Here is the input.
Amino acid sequence: MGKRGFTSLQEIPEEFKEELEKYFSAVGKDTFVIHGLPPELTGGALARYSRAKTGMQLTIINEFLDEHGKPSQEKGSALMDRVLNAYGDDSVGELEGVHVGFEDVSQLLAKEIEDRRIGGSPIEQSTRYVVYDKKDESGQWRYVRPKEIMESQFAQEYVEVCDQAFEVYAELIPLLSEHFTEQFPKETFTIQVPREGNMVTVSHDQLQNESEQRAFRIAYNFTIRCAALDVGRCVLPTATKTHLGIYGNGRFFTHLLSHLKSSPLQECVQRAEHLERELNKVIPTFVKRNKKRPELQVRDQHMFALANRLLSGLTPEDGWVTLAQQSNPLDEFVASALFPYTNVSYVQLLAAVSSWEQSKKHEVLDVYVGERQTRRDRTGRAAEAGYPFTYDLIGGFGEYRDLQRHRMLTQQRQLLSVDLGFIMPPEITTVGMHEQVSALVERVDDVNRRLRQAGLVYASQYMTLFNHRIRWMMGMNARALQHLTELRSGINGHHSYRSMAMQMAKEAIAREPWMASLLNHVDYSDPDNKIARAKEQSRIQGKNLKSGVDASVDLD
Here is the structure.
């Protein structure tokens, strides 16, 4: 059956209206929710908005129902293939989306997935809330065994060190829980409860019934556990497995597939194959145009060699939060291009590049841009250089994981290594585990360096711990800086990234005093508070009591 020619909903047969009611929340209205249509049909129908004279509901009837009046996915796919793949209308790729689960991926791969910024919304299993002290059903600790290492002479040693890390972690958590219980006894904890229409704050001895007592226990135990996990995760390896959920549109998944296929890490390449297989079952037309870009690995090799030659005399500076001064656009581009391929700071790179002759700068520019076959072979994030606020940051991998969630900012990181040292939390010594953690760090440092010496540079990143320092840079405008610092300095955040956010605000105000009026909600209180979640849990459990929500599942 060809295209129908209805021009008004009043003309259509009653059975067609009944069919529409299955998929539109308000048939015949000008505002509605679309739901339940076959994959790819919704995107195809939405794509017709730009060229069809009729509204969505008539367009569905005229163009996307089969001879029996049922939605035809084939018609939607055919239109998408024509518009998206034949005509090259990229924006149409954003009109259909799916939910995807990535389970048992390494922390390293999770960051690669989350770093694709536009069109995807991720959520990740949190090491701040989930305890990693149990082995899986096969009797193994939850960490990835990357193919590159498991097929090398380091396989047995890698497994031994990762096992040791999880054993230390499992021993640490109960000790840290006991420590924080002593530091913050129940007698000093309060929660909010509903009393006579108002929310009031009460202590342990003021609880009136079993519901309030239960809410108190949940809030207190969750607060103590979070404090213990915040510190204890310092010894988890980057190879630790996590679960990741993403809602993304077709354009997002197309770019993600290309990125993972082009990665030097076998875990990324393998997961790209799995992802493409599953997406082809649901939105095949939307992801048809992804491709591997082998030239990216060639570019990376050349950039590493170039950075090593041009920057060999520089000793890395060990700054914590450093706000760079703005420079000319070419210098900022070149410094940003070199940043991921070295271990020196962005500020050092800017200073070095500014003294170079133009020919040397253009050598970096030419290698970084490389050979672009089409307009879709876009240049990397160094081309985003030039923000008014660009920070060079050094923190633990744990802090990086939290701040990396501000994905819309321009971010680049250097390879994970052990060269910048390990942050030893003071609580480790307090609970008597300093010797065990130090021994673990020493073994990790040794294996990491030998992996790199053997040429397994990218795979060596799996052999680092959460509290090994990493250097990354973040570029942003004033509004993004306002959002980041006011959100991440909040009292319910992790103490490490809270301190970093506070310092970022201070650096900005010191350089640009007018920024104080934009950053007036930065929270500078208790920067070292390890039990900051107490206030948040007091409020949350009060709301749960009032609405009858059972929050005990979060402690299971």
